[in-house]
Structure formats: C-alpha cells, structure tokens
Amino acid sequence: MALPNKVKKLLSDAELLTDYKDCSNYFYKWLQNEFSKQPVGNLINARAEFIDRLLIKLFHVYDLAHEPDLALIAVGGYGRGELHPYSDIDFLLLVTQQPSEAICEKIGQFVTMLWDLNLEIGHSVRTIEQAIEQKREDVTFATSLLESRLLFGNHIEYEKLKNHILDTPVWHSDEFFLAKVQEQQLRHKKCHGTAYNLEPNIKENPGGLRDLQTIIWVAKKHFRAETLQELISHGYLTHEEYQELLECLENLWNIRFALHLAAGRSENRLLFDHQPLAADLLGFGSDGKASVERMMKRLFRIMSRVRELNQMLLSYFEQSILPESSEQPVIELDRNFERIGHQIRVKNPSVFFRRDQLFVLFEHIADNPTMTHIYPSTIRTIRQVRRRLLGDLQDYAACREAFLRLVKHPNGMGRAFTLMHKHGMLAAYLPQWRNIFGQMQFDLFHAYTVDEHTHKLINNIYQYFDKSSANKFPICCEIVTRMDKPELLYLAGIFHDIAKGRGGDHSELGAVDAIAFAKLHNFTNSDGKLIAWLVSNHLLMSVTAQRKDINDPDVIKEFATRIKNERQLDYLYCLTVADIRATNDNLWNDWKNTLLRELYLHTQRALRLGLENPMDQRDQIRDKKHQAKQRLLNHGFGEEQIDLIWARFKANYFTAFSEQQISWHSEHLLKADLSQPSVVVSNEAMHGGTQVFVYSPYSGGLFARLVSVIGSKKAQIQHAQVLTTRDGYVLFSFVVLEVSGEPIASGRVQSIKRGLDLALADPRKKIRFKKNRSQRFKDFNIKPKIILRPHPRKDRSLIEIQAVDIPGLLTKIAEVFQAHLLHIHAARITTVGERAEDFFVVSNNEYQALTDEEQAKIHQALRKKLNAETE
C-alpha cells in the first residue's frame, strides 16, 4: 500500500519537531478515514512504511546513516511489516563493536526524537555476539529476530545475523518448538484457558493473534517458510484451511485496528469501554448492546476456529519436529477407533457417515481418562463433517442414544464434554447451543460468554463426584453420593441459561426447551419436569440467600413451600453452587458459601419437620438463647448477668443472629463499659466473613460515619444490619471482606477497630475516604433504582435502593439520610457481585413515617447523588 503523496512530502520537508508532529497527525487522520474504505492489511502495511521512512530520515538527520558499522533492523511485528495504529515499534541497532561515546550520543538523540513524537518504541543496541547470546537465553528475542527486516545500514552484518538465526545450533527446531508450545500454554493459562472472556485480549487469548503467529514462527524456524501458504506444499495445510486462516487473520486485524482507534492508544484487551465504538467502526452498527453482540459473536467464532486450527497444526508439527512423539504404540479401541499416546484417532474417516460415531469417539475419551486430545487428522475430519451437516445431530435416533450414554457415563461430562464443546459438537447437536455460542452477558457478574459459563458450571458439577473435591464442595460431594439420577442435574446445567439472548425470561424459556428435549429423548414425565423445574428456578436459591433474611422462619417456610421436597432441594443446591462459582473467578467467597449452606440446612430441617408444622419464631428464639447461654456459662459468666444484657434486646435481635454471634456479642458487652460506645471486630472469620459489631447510643449520622470508616480502610461491606434496643441504643452488625473476597487479614483487624473507636469518640473528626471508581461501571449504563414504600409500622417508611456497588456507595446514601435528618431504625445491606441491594427502615426527624413531600425530596436527592457517582 503506497503512502499518500502528501504524507511523503510532509515527511520529506520536515525539519522541526512540530513539522514531524504535523506529518504524523495528518497520517493518523488518513488511517482513520481509510479504515472503512480499504482492506486492513493495506493500512497496517502503510503504517509500517510510514515508520520506515520516518526512521530512515531521522537516521540521516542524526548522522547515523554514515556509520559503516551500524545497521537499523526492524524486528517483531514491525519486522513483518505489520503495524496497527498504536502498535509498539521494535527495532535493533546492530553494531560490529561497542559504539563510541559520540555514536552513543547520536543514538540517544535519535531515540529521544522518537519519544518526543509520542511513539511507543522498544529498542536495543547489540553486537552480533550479544544478539546471539540473548537469543540463546530468551526465546521471545529469538522469535523477534526470526521476523527481522533490514531498514538501513550494514547489510553484511545483518546477513550474518540472519544466517545465525536459522543455521546455528542455538535453539534447534525441536527446542524452539517446545519453547513456543510452553510459551503458548502459559499464555492460555493466564487467560484461564478460555477465549470466551467478555473482555478478551485480541493478541493473547486462546485463538488470538499470538496463536496464529505461533504457527508462523514454528514454520519459519523448522520449514524456513516465509508464508502460511508454503505449508500447503509441505502437506500441513489444505488450500481451504489456508484460506480460512487468512480470513481469520484479516478479521482479527480488523478488530484490533478498530480497538486501537477506539482506545486512542496501544490496547489489546477489548474492554467494555471500547466495545461500542469498535463495533461502530467495524460496521456492526451503533445500536448499543445489539451491535456489540454482533461484533463479539463474530470475534468468538473466529477465535474458536483459530484455536482449533492452531491445535491441529501444532500436533502435526510435533510429529514432524519430534519424531519420537509419533512412535508411540497404536492401541485398538474398537474397529473404528484407535489410541496413540494420549490421543484418539479414527481409522477411516468414512466412519462418520454414521453420525452417532461422532459421539462414540467421545465415549472412548470418557472410558480412558488419560486420553486427553484428538489426533490432528481426526480433528480435520471432524471439521469437514461439521461443515457438511444437514440439520441437527439430535434428529438422529442413534445420536440421541449415544448422547445420553455420554451424559450418564461417570466420566462423560469431564474431559469428553470439554472436547465436545471445544470442537463444536454441542452446537452441532443442540440448536439452542449454537444460539448461546459467543453470547455476551451485559451485567456486572459474568466474566464469560453464556456457553463458556455453562461449560464451567458443568465442570463444577463433575468435580462433585471426585473425592478430592470434598473440601471444596463438602455438601455437594455428599449429596451426589445419594443422587439417583445425576444426569438430570447435568441436563439442568446445560439448559439453565440456554435461552439467554432471546428476550423474555430466560429461565422460563429454558424450561420450555428442557421439556421439549426430555420428550425427544424419551425421559419420563417426572424426570422432564424436574429438569424444567430446576431450569425455571435456578436463580431462586441464590436470590433468597442473598436478598432475604434466612434467619426468619417465615422466609424459610415460604422458600421450603416452593422447593416442596428434599430431592428438589438437593438438586437445586448443587446447581446453585456450580452456577455461582462458574460466573466469574471473584464472585464466590466464604460469605456466599455460608449463606447458601445455612439456607440449605434451614430448609432441609423445615422439610423434615413438615410444612404443616413450621418452626415457631418463639421456639427458634428459645433454642438460640439456650445454646448461646450455655456457651457463656461455660466461659464463666453468670445467668443473671446474661439475662440483664439480653433484656436490652428486642425479639428481632435473636432472630437476626446465630447463637454463635449472640454469645460473641454478649461476651463482649458483659466485659464492656456500657456507658460508652463499644466496638468489637472478630479476629477470625465467622459465618463467612469478618464480623464487626458496634453498640452505641443512637445519633442520626452514626451509620454514615461507620460505613465511611470501613470504606476508608479499603474493606468491602457484604452485609449490614441495624437494630435498635429497648433502652435507646442502636447496634450495627457488618460482615466485611477484603477486596479479594477473603476475610479481613489479621494484621488489619485492629486498624479497623481503632478507626471505628475514633469515629465514635470524636464525631467531628473528618474521615478521609479516597474514591477509586472503576471505569467498568459506566459501560453498563445501569441507573440506580430507588423505591419508597409504606412499612407495616405506621410511623416508619421503607426505602429500597438497587445500584452498582461503587466504592463509598453506603457513605453516599447515609450522607443523604443525614442531610434530611432521617433516623435509621433497621437496615439490610446486601452485595450481589457488583450490585448492591439495600433496604432501610427509616423515620423523619419527628420519628414519623415520611410524608409524600419528604419522600419526593429524598428520592430526588438519592437519584442525584448516586447518578453523579456512576457517570
């Protein structure tokens, strides 16, 4: 692609720094304007040519062009002649000997000028010996030299270096191949082994540009191939696969180019911030989520194809470069399949004309846990069969039988299921799976596409059956040992989100799909109904645990009534744990584990007692008091002392807290001077998190001060309760965690306690709270939802707030309450992922319910404050 004449002239005439900047600015505007008009390959070549001309001119300007022992060499992507708008410019200055002080000064001026032009450069000055030594120690540097290109200078020294790269024993083909494979494995591991992150890295993710480049690097080193096309003549690529790789490469280039333009800098992660503009630049439209969905589905499909081709080609390369890898014994599995090492191979590709044999292949993988991969020639065959399929595989009775054998196989939903997902067999079998492949999820919880989230959920369920997972999933591992039909749990997992992206309630739509699947596969009516019930109610348990008071007998009775029996409770609990843990790597923590476990145990007890004999609240309080008192008596406290303390509390205190918390609070209060505010922070995790308990005379701004202190200590409030006592005091209970989701580190407990003590002792002392708002929040355009309702008590009002859990959210809410002189009588603070759902029972300054006028003012003030924080 030739540069525009105006760019050439501006560069030729440039003398001052401002001239070079003007030329650069004009060129970048030209790149942006041309992006929608011509192939992206032309543009990335054009930028490389522009940088070539710029470096060569500056080489002359700083009198480096006349140094006979100096060569300017482009390396890496720049060496390939491929530069995206803001890609780094990597070059090597090759010298025959250590440069003199005068030459070093010129090189310094040359590099400084490039920095002044705001170019991101990576450069080094090396002799041939130094370059070879670094190449020996660093495979990344060795790789960059493979793609080197002489820009200007001593071509003899450059040719010597180039010959060294290919001909010297440093990094033999086999060593180079193994190093690049290991490098790729580590790169994939950092991405959690999946391409389907909602904010994927276009270069580094599995199926990204690096996977394509790895193929090219190995081909250059071993076969001395300069292009992918040469692999056709070597017998590694078909012409169709070559065209497919070129198409994938161009698509990835397009998306990366658009990403650079959207970000205005070198950026490889397609962050939520940049997705809408990138989608618009790529021609997917500007209609918000819909255009982003179209772009991301295209991207994930491309990455899936690249990853599959990468695996196939690297396996072929392994056989050629490491001959001993193909010398493993061949073990016959049946008349159609055989095993070679850890791979399975089809003997005759025509076998797949019987479509059920596609699933028999995966059955063999389930039968042989050490068989982890599919032989490259068989991958090629599967790809060809997949393209020629007419209709869905589930339309064939034999395929349905084979699929169900896999679902019921003890190992069928492990490695076999992963490979089915990876190689497109699930999408070929279930038409609904094709719809969720690469489906984005526009919320603050999920880190993966719908299909990848579901794959991870199935993997979690599979781990329940592994005894080594007992510490990770204690209740689930115990439940599945008595589960009569685990396949129903797996199928509920497959269908739980399968209707996402269609509009409407995905739980209800998915339940309809599950019923249809059950009928087609000849399940009994009761089994089909259980799968559908699980899909329809898969959010019920997490919503109840995280949004309702699970210590309230009425809540448990209502939940148990919907669950109906222990069998459904067992299945739903196992599905819920797997679902939350598959959502993202940060959402699950001990606090959520504790909530779900307690809800499960409370409900199990209610079901065993019988729904017609619910546990009375008075019975619950009596039991808790008895157990808590026994603990306190064992610690040397007298019964009269205990009863005197407990007389301060209302009945709702004893329903809100466990016997462990009640005894912990009481032990502290029995030792404290109750004429003064009192604070205690648990040194160890209790009920899934660090507990903070504050007992103090009531004052209007106290809640705001406490949450501000906790926020200033970079701790996250997961749950909070505010209760008033009979004697005019108020108690606050918080469950707090580190940002990582772990309980507060033991070394920080006293710091939090000191901060709370100071806030209570000196109400006028300012609390410094540094905001650290994430840019991620604005990408979802989620506006706070504020609802004011009457409360059962005539002198109270209920305020419900749903908002993004920005840092300092509770402080902002409390500041509004304080400004309007509201009294907080009770509160329930719940954090679900990165969404806060908070409930407050309040009254006005005269201890009456809020008037209509007061409600309107508070609603407006909250909306203004919270909207300002999320914009």
UniProtKB/TrEMBL annotation:
Regulation: Uridylyltransferase (UTase) activity is inhibited by glutamine, while glutamine activates uridylyl-removing (UR) activity.
Cofactor: Mg(2+)
Alphabetized CDD domains for the sequence: ACT_ACR-UUR-like_2, ACT_UUR-like_1, HDc, NT_GlnE_GlnD_like
Keywords linked to the UniProt accession: Hydrolase, Magnesium, Multifunctional enzyme, Nucleotidyltransferase, Repeat, Transferase
InterPro entries: ACT-like_dom_sf, ACT_dom, HD/PDEase_dom, HD_domain, NT_sf, PII_UdlTrfase/GS_AdlTrfase, Polymerase_NTP_transf_dom, UTase/UR
Chain positions covered by the region annotation Uridylyltransferase: 1-332
A Gene Ontology molecular function term of the record: [protein-PII] uridylyltransferase activity
SUPFAM superfamilies per record: ACT-like, Nucleotidyltransferase, Nucleotidyltransferase substrate binding subunit/domain, Poly A polymerase C-terminal region-like
Domain ACT: 691-772, 798-871
Function of the molecule: Modifies, by uridylylation and deuridylylation, the PII regulatory proteins (GlnB and homologs), in response to the nitrogen status of the cell that GlnD senses through the glutamine level. Under low glutamine levels, catalyzes the conversion of the PII proteins and UTP to PII-UMP and PPi, while under higher glutamine levels, GlnD hydrolyzes PII-UMP to PII and UMP (deuridylylation). Thus, controls uridylylation state and activity of the PII proteins, and plays an important role in the regulation of nitrogen metabolism.
Family as reported in the entry's similarity comment: Belongs to the GlnD family.
PANTHER family, per database record: BIFUNCTIONAL URIDYLYLTRANSFERASE/URIDYLYL-REMOVING ENZYME, BIFUNCTIONAL URIDYLYLTRANSFERASE_URIDYLYL-REMOVING ENZYME
Domain note: Has four distinct domains: an N-terminal nucleotidyltransferase (NT) domain responsible for UTase activity, a central HD domain that encodes UR activity, and two C-terminal ACT domains that seem to have a role in glutamine sensing.
Protein name per Swiss-Prot or TrEMBL: Bifunctional uridylyltransferase/uridylyl-removing enzyme
Organism: Pseudoalteromonas neustonica
Upper classification of the organism: Bacteria, Pseudomonadati, Pseudomonadota, Gammaproteobacteria, Alteromonadales
Gene behind this protein: glnD
